[in-house]
Amino acid sequence: MGGKEHLKNPEQMNGEMEGTTVTLLNDKKVRSQGHSDNGDIGTHLCMSLKLMRVEKMNTCYNSEVKDDVSCSHFQNVQTACCIWEEKSGESETDTDSEEVTNDQKTNENTTKLCLGFKGTKSHQKKKPPDSEISPSPPAPFDHRIVSAKHAQINSFYNVERTELLGGGRFGQVHRCIEKVSGLKLAAKVIKVKGHKEKEEVKNEIQVMNQLSHNNLVQLYDAFESRNDIVLVMEYVEGGELFDRIIDESCNLSEVDTVLFIKQICEGIQYMHQMYIIHLDLKPENIMCVSRADYQIKIIDFGLARRYKPREKLKVHFGTPEFLAPEVVNYDFVSFPTDMWSVGVIAYMLVSGLSPFLGEDDNETLNNIVACEFDFEEDEFQKISDAAKDFIIKLLVKEKCWRMSASESLKHPWLSDSQLHFRINQKRTHTSCSEAEPPVDQ
User: Fold this and answer.
1) Where does ATP bind (predicted)?
2) Residue 378: active-site member
3) Helix (H/G/I), strand (E/B), else coil: 319
4) In whole angstroms, what separates CA 270 from the centre of its chain?
5) Handedness of CA 84, 90, 94, 98 (dihedral sign)
6) Of 27, 94, 221, 280, which residue is the catalytic one?
7) Are 405 and 265 in contact (CB under 8 A)?
8) Was 191 annotated as part of a binding site?
């Protein structure tokens, strides 16, 4: 059926940047069977980068259980003095200064008043005893504030140009070694043709300067020349999460998916608390720390934007397969836009299928707007109801109904107690399957 395809090995297609427009064609991966190999971009849907800021904002982000809660507006106040905050720390602020209902005032678990503080206080959790769910390791350097140097990278680093780690619309990524320290890093070389393109890359630098989290790749250095900007970043060698999805020899279990999605939500929760929207979440932008474990880091903040509650942001870019309905319809975007993409990724990880993928980009976008998907394929027969419920609560057309990152982490599918139970089940099953069979009498 259209809108649900088995994933296949991708072809590379590079986007082109022309003037004020960025043209993207499924980034570097094209999964649709209907795509040809001739590279003719005229036959595909082009996603053009546009930004529009509107002063008034009236969208809510109160995503309690769908049947029990309706969309609500939050009181508009200056964030420097006082902000209304959803229990997840990721609510949108309404500039229309509406009265908060008595139910909202008394429900301290849903909304609380915070003075001079933009993020929620993190709850102290016990460190999981299982090595399988240990957190991703920090970068091998302290977080730093980086600005692009007008210098040659070769003066400070040995760049292994013959070893390509990755590539796409942005350019190429090579391994490099810092001459002074011997530190192994990754150099992302981005070709720029003019001032606007340079500003886009500098926006990526500014975004990364604000983010310090173990599940987000860290920026180490940057260099600017006439024709390119090079970002020197934390080196991650485990390959893309997408590679594990399409690798037939890598049979991802539901427990594996939980481990991945939990870390993705933790990274996105931090980003949203820092008022950053990624806007390009997909398996290609999630790197595994190594090929033998489940630790991940989110990469590629080239399309990320800082969310300003008093402004409205519209975008029209990204990879069609993972776009939220509000992006397709050129409507306002905010934190729930990222959570839609998390829902698509979760669907893909548990099944190997893509929920909205069509024969071409037009069909894919139509499937997204229709927001029709199901779990009727054979791949879902052994998937838990909790996993399906998690996906259902993210793949919601109206963004105000979607779970936030914080709420997703509290969902039974990702809760620590449930996670430990499933890991123990997995270990028991593995040990039983590896035991010697009984001798026939």
Assistant:
1) 188
2) no
3) coil
4) 12
5) negative
6) 280
7) yes
8) no
